Amino acid sequence: MKFKLNGKMVDANKASGDTPLLYVLRNDMQLNGPKYGCGLGQCGACAVLIDGKVARSCSVPLSVVQGKEVTTLEGLSPAATQQAQAGVAQEPQFKDMQDASFAVKAPVTAAPIKLHPVQQAFIDTQAAQCGYCVNGMIMSLTALFDKRPNASNDEIKKQLAHHLCRCGTHLEILDAAYRARTLIAQGHSVKAAAATVQAACEQPTCAKELA
Fold first, then answer.
1. Is the pLDDT of residue 36 over 80?
2. Which end of the chain has the smaller Cβ count within 10 Å, N or C?
3. Which of 107, 106, 130, 119 is closest to 179 using CA atoms?
4. What integer pLDDT is reported at residue 205 of this predicted model?
5. Is the CB of residue 82 less than 8 Å from the CB of residue 101?
6. From residue 111, how far is each of 62, 162, 183, 195, 209 by CA, in Å?
């Protein structure tokens, strides 16, 4: 079962076609952005993009994504993800572990790595408490702003209507969405961020990590 995952072709040959995509992403691909929430496709914590459209990966069979492109939270800012993983690997509780999922080298950069504007907006507004639902909120807003960068407040609220936040930080989440719209309007586009990362990562080691 082959599909493109965060820009790279992968083969999930260990899983059957009826396996929920979420299980493959988390267990086989070691991607922890999408979360298991309700398991029924209702809470939105497991959201990913499939060919640019939001999908609840807990209820999408693996067979559905064959030949398609899947983007997870990690794929929005791959260089920043690499850097974060490298930092986690240095924590005392993980430093001596041999698990390959922690064997990540930090990219060598000449400039700060930029996050996706939606991710940056959530940080700017501190729009998370436990953070469990944030993956789905970010992925859903990314899909919306990719198509409608100047989406209205009502369109934003409609996009987030079926994403649940158990901590009740809905107002902060809306602030983050409006902040993301402002960042995008100011030119903090995904392409601009990618260009910044590419310019910063001219070192061979960094280029290898992003390849």
1. yes
2. C
3. 119
4. 36
5. no
6. 38, 38, 19, 12, 16
Spatial neighbors of 149 by CB under 8 A, at least 6 apart, are 181, 184, 185
For the chain, state the CA radius of gyration: 17
Residue 210 carries which side chain, given as an amino acid letter? Answer: L
SS3 state at 162: coil
Q: Which amino acid is at 109?
A: T
**160 phi/psi in degrees, rounded to 5:** -95, 0
- What distance lies between CA 87 and its chain's CA centroid? 18
List the one residue out of 76, 74, 72 whose CA is nearest residue 116.
76
Hey, what are 20's tokens? 């929920």
How many DSSP H helices and E strands does the chain contain? 10, 5
The phi and psi torsions of 137 (rounded to 5 degrees) equal -60, -45
Q: Whose CA is closest to 73, among 27, 133, 151?
A: 133
CB 99 within 8 A of CB 139: no
- Return the SS3 of 53: strand
- The pTM of the full predicted model, rounded to 2 decimals, is 0.77
